[in-house]
């Protein structure tokens, strides 16, 4: 456990959007059990862009899924904090409450297949609010659509949009409901570097200009460079926490994982 | 390749299960019908084999005799004449008549619920009797009767039970006591048998001493039946029918022709459900092929030929067909067994041990099951063969909006237009102008057209039908509607399956309700009589009963009607037609509409009235003189045509009229046909009292039913309803198969949309809403099917009514209740069909769903 991670736990809750405490996730049972997360403690800061990185199998996606209420934990607790500091414990919620939480307080951007093929771009953007039976905030919606530059494409079906445009629709959908946190699971993983940069630019602006909290899993150092903070996972643990990253620093750090994706212990101990 | 398809088949067995059920159900219905009817046929065959004699002599069959003309007999002299022939071992005077009613202690006729006949015979001893006396004594005098064991058991009769026998001879009715119980040597399918001593049977049942209804002969050993027949025919001349055992058995089989009819009706319905099942199979295979596009593309890339892919899909179909047919045949045997048990419950006596799994039934089961499955899989197999190796490289994704081809739509439109033209033509032609044939053609062609146009119509109808969905259910509604529209071909085929059953239901309902409404309104317009008396059980309304009816207080008059055939010639044509011979008060009881002349003249001036069609075919008009040879008359008579009747009538349709007086002048009293319909009219204001009085004065005649106009209307309504209910019941099978089709489509759609559903769940759609979305889609598809079905059914029903308007179904009545019920039923069907798929969709693991491949 690094000192940085311990420091994160002591942050005041007003500045915290989500918190995981001693979260473990095991797949399978008994001898064949695989530990995906091993007693992870982490705080996600409000109004910041956090990237989660790590080699394949490090548990980075699992951590995000657990934080987002998509997956259950084996032990430990997860909270999401409202803008008023009110804590909601995800790990104590039933499916129905989790569903409502996802609908009302969390936004998602997946790597691919973000949109329903039967709905047009605008309908896809407002879908979570439609499901909830809420009227979208018109001014906000216009601003979001304006930010991602989708006005001319609103009536198009997903099949009529390029991959980059589809991801921008997904970003707009995530932003439209003004969720407390948006989670992205390699949101630019399927895009060429230009489209990816475009989408990440929007996300960065949404954090800077709209005060959005954003958590993204990625394996791309240049994507992680857009973040305020990068958490490195290996073997189900947080092994490093880097602030103000740039692509080179991240790439360097990633090189410290050995060929099997395990942490080079000696190097970690030095820090 | 075969190994691959076998593996595939079993890998997808869950998805094939519903198709399998459809094959099983249809095959079960076919084989069950065949086994059931063959069991009945076998039972009757064995019965006829035991009741037939080597050679039987009966009176010459009178083809013109209508039910109700006097029973034909042979004199005892015939028995004496044939007794001594060289080939005769033994000769028996046989009496067998259905002209009686047996009344129990409760003054109700003993009859079977199935309407099995009540047969009276004379008791005589032969070495090969059809029944054995199992208890008591044979009938020894006028007060004794032996009853068959099945009837005794059903009606709780025992030796010593008192019964009353009602006849329409001079003997009237007389009391008897059960002296013995006789048991059939084979299964008796449902007749009630009563045995009297010969003299009683002759004098009281036939009304004449020394006559029989036939003579049965046993041939001497070594004398062939045909040889004996020749001897007998030579001795008696041409005045009698002489039949060998084989001929009697064949006659018996013909007399139960209804079994054959029933078989074809049931097979027809089995065919409908097979057709519906075929849609299900087509859909299933199409979906399986679509899902396996990538896999099949890989096989092509690895070098599998088109033909191999094609064959592998067909081989799967073959497996499905063989397994389905095998299970179906087994279920069919169960179904036949159940039907036999059911028949035993309603009074038809069959023995389940007579049932056998026949080769034709099994053969038909396999043929039908395998052929239909193979044919249904033909198109999907071809499509599978056309998959390119490139498909393996492409991202499979969900099969997008595969637009229904323009050519198909164009052909569909043309066919539907052709069907509509045939229907319109049929309606215009009417019953006499070949309208029925055009109607049949129109039904068939418009059905094919609707099936072809299904995908196009899905787009139009569901957009309209579903317009309210987004308004009521918000985005859930939008998604449900668009999902239903997503693959119009699949939605079209699913809905078409439902459409077939529902179109028949609504078409039949329109015809049925039009028939009831027309008959009721015609009764209001034409029937002036307050009461209608009819006789059941082969009996007539006797003179004794008629006299009692006439003496009933509160009645203004009583009209008797006898029905008979006559040959009417004159003008340029001749031929047989039916006549109603009635009392003059007929004109007050029954307002027969004429196109020319006056029916009153027929009764006052002594002539005949002819229906328009009969008059036209003979080129007769009012004033023509016809030569009429009444059945049973002494000689043809010349009678003037005094009225021409309209053809569009439900009652006495196609009958001519003559007065009883005129008929009495040419037909001797003992050859007059029976009175089997009597009208009565009450004095003004006495309707209720007279009804009660008439009912009580008819009490001693259990064979006579008294009906008021209201009763009669209800009877018509009930009869039509029971026929409709039976049809609906049989169509139920087709509808069940169609429901399986909806379940199948939804289930496979849910599988295909795993990722989408996962996504919506991830962004906050609750399980409840997920379920609702699937349910709404299902309801939309079902309602679409109902819309098509009701639309077609209405078109057919209206055309049928127009075709039949010339023969009496003059009023069109749309059964709004039934149609509303069809729509409500369809919505319920949609909800039920969505139960499992919706449950599965809502229980999907969100993460796994999102990660799912394609």
Automatic annotation (TrEMBL), chain A:
Q: Which UniProt keywords apply?
A: ATP-binding, Nucleotide-binding, Transport
InterPro entries in the cross-refs: AAA+_ATPase, ABC_transporter-like_ATP-bd, ABC_transporter-like_CS, ABC_transpr_LolD-like, MacB-like_ATP-bd, P-loop_NTPase
Q: Where is the signal peptide?
A: none
| CDD domains for the chain | ABC_MJ0796_LolCDE_FtsE
Q: Output one GO MF annotation.
A: ATP binding
Give the ABC transporter domain ranges: 18-260
What superkingdom heads the lineage?
A: Bacteria
The protein, known as: ABC transporter ATP-binding protein
Please spell out the taxonomic lineage of the organism that makes this protein.
Bacteria, Bacillati, Actinomycetota, Actinomycetes, Catenulisporales
UniProtKB/TrEMBL annotation, chain B:
Kindly give the InterPro entries that the UniProt entry links to this protein: ABC3_permease_C (IPR003838), MacB_PCD (IPR025857), Macrolide_Exporter_MacB (IPR050250)
Q: Where in the cell is it found?
A: Cell membrane
The principal location of this protein is membrane
One Pfam family of this protein, by short name? MacB_PCD
> Which residue numbers delimit the MacB-like periplasmic core domain?
17-233
Q: How does it sit in the membrane?
A: Multi-pass membrane protein
Q: Where is the ABC3 transporter permease C-terminal domain?
A: 269-389, 730-846
Segments traversing the membrane: 264-285, 317-343, 363-381, 410-431, 443-473, 494-516, 726-751, 772-796, 816-839
Q: List the keywords (alphabetical).
A: Cell membrane, Membrane, Transmembrane, Transmembrane helix
As for family, the record states: Belongs to the ABC-4 integral membrane protein family.
Which named protein is this?
FtsX-like permease family protein
């Amino acid at each position: 456990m690094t000192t940085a991670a311990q420091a994160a736990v002591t942050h005041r809750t007003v500045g915290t959007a989500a918190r995981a405490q001693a979260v473990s996730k095991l797949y399978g049972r008994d001898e064949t059990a695989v530990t995906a997360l091993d007693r992870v403690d982490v705080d996600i800061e409000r109004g910041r862009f956090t990237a989660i990185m790590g080699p394949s199998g490090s548990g980075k996606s699992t951590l995000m899924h657990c934080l987002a209420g998509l997956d259950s934990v084996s032990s430990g607790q997860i909270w999401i904090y409202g803008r008023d500091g009110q804590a909601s414990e995800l790990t104590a919620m039933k499916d129905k409450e989790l569903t409502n939480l996802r609908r009302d307080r969390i936004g998602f951007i997946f790597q691919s297949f973000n949109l329903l093929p039967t709905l047009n771009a605008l309908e896809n953007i407002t879908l979570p609010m439609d499901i909830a039976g809420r009227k979208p905030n018109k001014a906000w919606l216009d601003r979001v659509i304006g930010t991602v530059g989708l006005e001319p494409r609103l009536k198009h079906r997903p099949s009529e949009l390029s991959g980059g445009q589809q991801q921008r629709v997904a970003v707009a959908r995530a932003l439209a409901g003004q969720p407390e946190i948006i989670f992205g699971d390699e949101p630019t993983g399927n895009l060429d570097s230009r489209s990816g940069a475009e989408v990440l630019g929007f996300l960065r602006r949404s954090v800077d200009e709209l005060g959005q909290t954003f958590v993204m899993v990625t394996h791309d150092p240049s994507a992680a460079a857009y973040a305020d903070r990068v958490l490195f996972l290996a073997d189900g643990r947080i092994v490093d926490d880097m602030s103000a990253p740039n692509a080179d620093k991240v790439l360097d750090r990633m090189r410290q994982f050995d060929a099997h994706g395990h942490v080079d212990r000696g190097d970690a101990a030095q820090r | 390749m075969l190994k691959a398809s076998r593996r595939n088949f079993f890998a997808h067995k869950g998805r094939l299960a519903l198709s399998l059920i459809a094959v099983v159900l249809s095959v079960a219905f076919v084989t069950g019908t065949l086994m059931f009817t063959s069991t009945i046929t076998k039972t009757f065959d064995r019965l006829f084999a035991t009741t037939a004699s080597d050679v039987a002599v009966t009176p010459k069959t009178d083809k013109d005799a209508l039910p109700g003309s006097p029973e034909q007999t042979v004199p005892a002299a015939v028995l004496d004449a044939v007794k001594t022939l060289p080939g005769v071992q033994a000769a028996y005077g046989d009496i067998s008549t259905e002209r009686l009613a047996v009344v129990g202690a409760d003054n109700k006729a003993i009859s079977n619920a199935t309407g099995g006949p009540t047969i009276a015979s004379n008791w005589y001893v032969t070495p090969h009797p059809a029944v054995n006396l199992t208890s008591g004594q044979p009938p020894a005098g006028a007060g004794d009767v032996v009853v068959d064991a099945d009837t005794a058991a059903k009606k709780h009769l025992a030796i010593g039970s008192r019964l009353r026998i009602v006849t329409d001879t001079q003997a009237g009715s007389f009391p008897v006591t059960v002296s013995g119980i006789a048991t059939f040597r084979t299964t008796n399918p449902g007749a009630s048998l009563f045995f009297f001593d010969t003299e009683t049977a002759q004098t009281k049942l036939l009304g004449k001493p020394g006559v029989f209804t036939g003579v049965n002969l046993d041939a001497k050993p070594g004398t062939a039946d045909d040889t004996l027949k020749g001897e007998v025919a030579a001795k008696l001349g041409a005045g009698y029918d002489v039949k060998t055992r084989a001929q009697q058995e064949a006659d018996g089989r013909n007399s139960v022709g209804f079994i054959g009819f029933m078989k074809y009706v049931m097979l027809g319905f089995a065919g409908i459900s097979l057709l519906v099942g075929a849609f299900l199979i087509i859909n299933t295979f199409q979906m399986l092929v679509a899902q396996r596009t990538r896999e099949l593309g890989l096989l092509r890339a690895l070098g599998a030929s088109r033909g191999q892919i094609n064959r592998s899909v067909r081989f799967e179909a073959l497996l499905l067909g063989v397994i389905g047919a095998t299970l179906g045949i087994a279920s069919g045997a169960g179904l036949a067994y159940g039907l036999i048990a059911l028949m035993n419950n309603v009074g038809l006596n069959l023995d389940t041990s007579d049932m056998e799994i026949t080769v034709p039934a099994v053969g038909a089961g396999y043929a039908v099951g395998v052929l239909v499955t193979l044919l249904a899989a033909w198109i999907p197999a071809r499509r599978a063969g056309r998959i390119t190796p490139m498909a393996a490289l492409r991202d499979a994704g969900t099969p997008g909006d595969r637009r229904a081809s323009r050519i198909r739509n164009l052909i569909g439109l043309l066919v539907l237009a052709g069907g509509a033209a045939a229907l319109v033509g049929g309606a215009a032609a009417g019953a006499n102008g070949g309208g029925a044939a055009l109607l049949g053609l129109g039904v068939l062609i418009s059905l094919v057209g609707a099936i072809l146009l299904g995908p196009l119509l899905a787009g139009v109808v569901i957009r309209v039908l579903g317009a309210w969905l987004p308004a009521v259910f918000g985005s859930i509604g939008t998604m449900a509607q668009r999902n239903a529209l997503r693959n119009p071909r699949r939605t079209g085929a699913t809905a078409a399956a439902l459409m077939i059953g529902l179109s028949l239901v609504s078409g039949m309902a329109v015809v049925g309700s039009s028939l009831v409404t027309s008959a009721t309104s015609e009764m209001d317009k034409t029937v002036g009589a307050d009461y209608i008396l009819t006789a059941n059980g082969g009996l007539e309304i006797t003179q004794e009963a008629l006299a009692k009816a006439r003496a009933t207080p509160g009645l203004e008059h009583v009209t008797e009607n006898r029905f008979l055939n006559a040959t009417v010639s004159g003008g340029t044509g001749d031929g047989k037609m039916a006549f109603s011979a009635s009392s003059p008060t007929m004109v007050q009881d029954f307002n027969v509409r004429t196109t020319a002349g006056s029916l009153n003249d027929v009764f006052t001036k002594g002539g005949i009235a002819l229906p328009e069609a009969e008059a036209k075919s003979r080129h007769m008009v009012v004033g023509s003189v016809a030569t009429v040879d009444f059945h049973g008359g002494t000689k043809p008579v010349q009678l003037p045509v005094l009225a021409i009747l309209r053809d569009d009538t439900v009652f006495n349709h196609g009958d001519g009229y003559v007065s009883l007086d005129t008929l009495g002048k040419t037909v001797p009293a003992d050859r007059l046909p029976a009175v089997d319909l009597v009208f009565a009219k009450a004095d003004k204001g006495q309707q209720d009292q007279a009804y009660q009085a008439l009912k009580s004065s008819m009490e001693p005649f259990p064979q006579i039913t008294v009906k008021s106009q209201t009763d009669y209307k209800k009877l018509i309504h009930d009869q039509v309803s029971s026929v409709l209910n039976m049809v609906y019941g049989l169509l139920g099978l087709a509808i069940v198969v169609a429901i399986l089709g909806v379940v199948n489509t939804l289930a496979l759609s849910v599988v295909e949309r795993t990722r989408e559903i996962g996504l919506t769940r991830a962004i906050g759609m609750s399980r409840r809403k997920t379920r609702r979305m699937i349910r709404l889609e299902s309801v939309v598809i079902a309602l679409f099917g109902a819309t098509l079905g009701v639309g077609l059914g209405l078109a057919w029903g209206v055309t049928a009514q127009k075709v039949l308007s010339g023969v009496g179904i003059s009023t069109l009545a749309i059964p709004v209740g039934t149609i509303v019920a069809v729509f409500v039923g369809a919505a319920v069907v949609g909800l039920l069909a969505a139960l499992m798929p919706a449950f599965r969709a809502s229980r999907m693991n969100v993460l796994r769903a999102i990660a799912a491949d394609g």
